Hints:
Shape: elongated
Number of strands: 0
Mean pLDDT: 95
Number of domains: 1
Low-confidence stretches: none
Order of helices and strands: HHH
Strand content: under 5%
Distance between the termini: 41 Å
Radius of gyration: 16 Å
Largest sheet: none
Amino acid sequence: MSNYEYNKKYVKEWDKKNLKRIGVALRIDEYEKLKQYCDSNNIAVATFIKSRIADIID
């Protein structure tokens, strides 16, 4: 097995043990506002969402 394949398998196993994914449905206008905000502040949408969640629960 190549290092690449090993790393890919390791990451997949680590993710399965340590991460949970959620989906969020937004109206198109809400998504566009969110995307525009993130673009204008040079931040990824996922990073913004995780940051806001941390502000509330931490």
